[in-house]
Write a structure and sequence with these properties.
The structure holds two protein chains of two kinds. By secondary structure, chain A is mainly α. Chain A has helices at 2-5, 8-22, 24-27, 35-55, 61-82, 86-110, 118-142, 152-172, 174-179, 187-210. In chain A, helix 2 packs antiparallel against helix 4 (35-55), helix 5 (61-82) runs antiparallel to helix 6 (86-110) and helix 8 (152-172) runs antiparallel to helix 10 (187-210). Chain B starts with a helix and ends with a strand. Classes of the chains: A mainly alpha, B alpha+beta. The A-B interface holds A 136, 139-141, 143-144, 146, 148-149, 158, 161-162, 166, 187-188, 191-192, 194-196, 199 and B 3-4, 6-8, 10-12, 14-15, 18-19, 22-23, 25-26, 29-30, 33.
């Protein structure tokens, strides 16, 4: 059975894409609408990646290298858009540009196309974690909503905070685990990351469900 | 399987902990904000009430003064005229009756003006600009100094409570000039723009050293000005003072109209 081979997190990615597409009317007029093309690219890249890995038994790192250039800048862009302080917003924009430049340099000259660009992922994850923390801090400082659980960005930023914190530590240790041939002992880390992917896409779906239909 | 359960539990527990801590902190902050907002509202209401009372008090003083200095004098003169009419001299008597009629007419007109100002809600009814114009007219009549009022821009109606507090600040400013400035001339400029209401009061009085306002040695110094500053802050306005000894004082109030 093909379906049983597909990992569970993929279904959560697909679910968030489906929910986003169904609720597209609600997302219009907010930056969250850009999630739909990003999720579409993610699901497509993940499908090709899984096909390569599960059926062709080929290395799929190049696909994920390209996906990094869509996902990471998008999350930085999204969090930046919801940050209120102008100086932090400007700083985040500079960081975004610098990150893209670094990503391209890493992809072309340092880690290359054939190897997974974990350095790009670590850097991007660190930026996203810091921006998510800053967004949560602003939410605490300036938030006026009586029910924070109805705020879509609360869920999305919590998801990014958790997922990218896990990703940061996991890939920061990636080279170390490989170097000392400890990959077989990293099962728990793999499982934590898989759980965090599920958490991220579940929170994105909850965020979509929390958006309100804007009155014309 | 055991590892999977452990990993999932770890993730879920951390996540739940984060969300609960965040919710507690957020609700605490919201409660504090609500409390601060309520305190600010109560302070605003208190200032509003105080301003109303002060306007009433000032109005009563003005009425008492007006009755004593103006209407009382005019009516006494009319009474004197009528009392000294000699019917044996019809021409003189007619003249005196005419004079008395004019005096009574003036007294009636003054009483009408007074009746208008006795209505303590006149600031709300007339609006800020008309109330200031009326106040300036009263000062001009009193002859304490020469007030000059210039209005620029398209006047716009403000929130009634803000108008009342602004008017009270204006009254207090004028009172200060009368009491302390020894000014001969006072320029009042009111400028309305789309975003701002700008009121500037410039007098050519004796001025004062503004550094004394914040002097810790004399905490009561400039209490009235600080009070005006606080009132302005409560309605979102900026109150600034520039004064040069022996030259005069300029006071500026800027109220953003979008607030």
């Amino acid at each position: 059975m093909v379906i049983t081979k597909i990992p569970i997190f993929f279904w959560f990615e697909l679910l968030s894409l489906v929910i986003g597409t169904i609720l597209i009317k609600r997302l219009r007029g907010s930056i969250l609408v850009y999630f739909i093309p990003v999720l579409l690219i993610t699901v497509a890249a993940e499908s090709v990646g899984l096909y390569y890995k599960l059926f062709l038994h080929k290395y799929n790192g190049q696909i994920y290298n390209l996906l990094l250039f869509v996902q990471l800048p998008f999350f930085i862009f999204l969090l930046r858009a919801y940050i209120q302080t102008k100086t932090t917003k400007d700083f985040a924009l500079i960081i975004l540009v610098a990150f893209l430049v670094y990503g391209v340099i890493n992809f072309v000259f340092i880690q290359g196309k054939s190897r997974f660009n974990n350095h790009t992922l670590i850097t991007g994850a660190l930026i996203i974690v810091l921006l998510s923390c800053y967004y949560c801090f602003e939410l605490l400082k300036y938030g006026t909503e009586s029910k924070i659980l109805n705020n879509p960005m609360f869920w999305i930023s919590s998801g990014t905070l958790f997922y990218f914190t896990g990703t940061f530590f996991y890939f920061a240790l990636y080279d170390y685990l490989r170097k000392y041939k400890l990959e077989n002992k990293s099962e728990i880390f793999d499982l934590i990351i898989l759980n965090l992917v599920i958490v991220l896409y579940s929170f994105i779906s909850i965020g979509f469900l929390c958006t309100k239909l804007k009155k014309e | 399987m055991k590892t999977a359960i452990l990993a999932t539990s770890l993730v879920l527990i951390t996540l739940a902990f984060f969300i609960i801590v965040f919710l507690i902190a957020y609700n605490k902050k919201q409660r504090r904000n609500k409390k601060e907002k309520a305190e600010l509202q109560s302070q605003f209401n208190q200032t509003l009430l105080q301003s109303q009372l002060e306007i009433q008090e000032q109005t009563l003083n003005k009425i008492s003064q007006e009755i004593h200095d103006n209407i009382g004098q005019v009516l006494s003169l009319a009474k004197l005229n009528i009392g000294t009419i000699d019917i044996c001299q019809p021409e003189r008597a007619q003249e005196k009756i005419k004079d008395s009629r004019e005096l009574v007419g003036k007294a009636i007109q003054d009483l009408r003006n007074l009746a208008r100002s006795m209505n303590t809600t006149y600031v709300n009814e007339l609006g800020l600009l008309r109330s200031i114009e009326y106040e300036v007219e009263m000062i001009r009549k009193s002859g304490v100094f020469i007030p000059q009022l210039n209005v620029e821009g398209q006047p716009s109606k403000l929130n009634a409570q803000k108008e009342l507090i602004l008017f009270r600040i204006f009254q207090e400013l004028i009172n200060n000039i009368i009491k302390h400035a020894e000014a001969k001339k006072v320029d009042i400029r009111i400028v309305f723009t789309e975003e701002l209401l700008n009121i500037t009061v410039i007098d050519n009085g004796k001025g004062f050293d503004t550094t004394l306002l914040n002097s810790p040695d004399n905490p009561t110094s400039g209490l009235g000005l600080r009070n005006m500053q606080n009132r302005a802050r409560l309605i979102g306005a900026v109150f600034s003072i520039t004064s040069i000894p022996r030259t005069g004082t300029t006071i500026n109030i800027q109220l953003p109209l979008s607030v």
